[in-house]
Amino acid sequence: MLNSYIAFDVETTGLSPAEHEIIEIGALKVREGKVQERFITFIKPRLPIQENITRITGISNDMVAGARSREQVIPEFLEFCEEDILIGHNLIFDYSFIHNSARSLGYVFDRVGIDTLSIARSVHRELPSKSLGALCEHYRIQNQAAHRAYHDALATAKLYQTMSHYFEEKHPGLFAAKPLVCTSGECPPATPKQLSLLKRLTKQKGIMQDLNMETLTKNEASRLIDSILNPCS
């Protein structure tokens, strides 16, 4: 069992790292088997959080209104991670969001990690669901606030330790850290035409004056333009 690692989780506005945004990062730094440091922060998205995402995550637009931007938060999180092995449940999902955000800001974030979902799929084939919630219920691991980033990260760390205790000696390969490969491509930057339209619209409407046009992606710009032109849709 690893004694030192980073367990983390992100909450997002959707499922695509190329199109959607991180709205919360929660992580714990484990040293010699004990939690040494925590990372818990909201990120203010460029676009409003939709109601269905609020229902899933419990994170509302009011909660992120005073949060910092990804340009401020992502570098801090990368520093927090140091060169540690990463642990997550369905790790590639969370990693892909961080990886794409880091790359869009000019940082390199290539790591190795251990996915508790992959482990569970091998050692718990009998369970109908391998979700974090189902596995926590199976092992009686308490998660005080499911679908909030830090609490999910903490539950994942406990799940890793528990499954390692029961299965690592018999299946050491399942618990070996592997290179993380982000397969989803980065969304291209917003086009000059989109940026020109956005500048005109934001000036006309008097909104989003702090929008960072330099890091806006093509899909984000499209969704933002649509939200301005069709505010009630």
TrEMBL record:
Signal peptide: none
Keywords: Exonuclease, Hydrolase, Nuclease
Pfam families given in the database record: RNase_T (PF00929)
Gene Ontology MF terms: exonuclease activity
Source superkingdom: Bacteria
Occurrences of domain Exonuclease (ranges): 4-169
Keyword Cytoplasm found: no
InterPro entries (UniProt xref): DnaQ (IPR006054), Ribonucl_H (IPR013520), RNaseH-like_sf (IPR012337), RNaseH_sf (IPR036397)
NCBIfam families given in the database record: dnaq
UniProt protein name: 3'-5' exonuclease
Lineage: Bacteria, Bacillati, Bacillota, Clostridia, Eubacteriales
